Amino acid sequence: MKIAGLKIGFLVSCILFLASHVYAQYPGYKTVADATAFRKKAQEYTKKTNSLESDFKQVKHLSMLTENSVSKGKFWFKKDNLLRWEYKEPVQYLIVLNSGKAYIKDNGKVKKFDMNSNRIFKQVNELMLAAIKGDIMESADYKITYFEGSDSFLAELSPLQKNMKEYVKNILIYFDKKDFSVSKFRMTELSGDYTEVEFSNKKTNLPFENSIFSGN
């Protein structure tokens, strides 16, 4: 009986340790009780979203620097596969992703290149599109764990592909509980450095022309 009691006590200790580890990792979040129901609601939102306009704040953390780099700007998305990131502070910078092509405008000069030439850039682009469109829920390239907080859901993506595992530790995507839209996105590298983008003032299904994704 004493041995059985010790085994039960050890098992309970392991469970409590694992549970506390999850909560310590993401304070305020617990494992989603019904991941299937969450995925369904998130996909319902994305299917109805043909376009998205939003402000964004980007924080870049580099261990070699004492302060984080903070940028602000405007973001546009339109089905299918059209993205525009317009940085306005502290410097003006533009990134447009359009049907496999990337346009980068810096100091008034526009550079164009094929995203297939950079596998990491291509995969991050596909990841962003998949998150906004809801396709990320079905991806076989990541192990996905879902958590729930008071005002948002959190999807933790751990890469399974070798080339991403060598560069990315994990990717966190936060979904607003009010409408299941993406509210925040964080990619953490193996070094611990990370890039976090938070969206605000989101407006869906506004009419705007494809010319906004021309790179100008």
Question: Could you characterize the architecture of this molecule?
Answer:
By secondary structure, this protein is α+β, with helices and mostly antiparallel strands. It folds into 2 domains: 27 residues; 182 residues, outer membrane lipoprotein receptor (LolB), chain A (Clam). It has 4 helices and 12 strands, in the order αβαββββββαββαβββ. The chain has a 12-stranded antiparallel β-sheet. The radius of gyration is 20 Å and the shape is globular.
Outline:
This protein has 216 residues and is of the alpha+beta class. Helices cover 26% and strands 43% of the residues.
Question: Which SSEs are present, and which pair or pack?
Answer:
Blueprint lengths: L1 H24 L4 E2 L3 H14 L2 E11 L7 E10 L3 E8 L3 E6 L2 E6 L2 E6 L4 H15 L8 E7 L3 E8 L2 H4 L2 E9 L5 E8 L4 E11 L12
What is the C-level CATH assignment of the largest domain?
A: Mainly Beta
* Helicity, as a percent range: 25-40%
Query: What would the principal axes of the Cα set say about the shape?
Result: globular
Please identify the structural class as seen in this structure.
Answer: alpha+beta
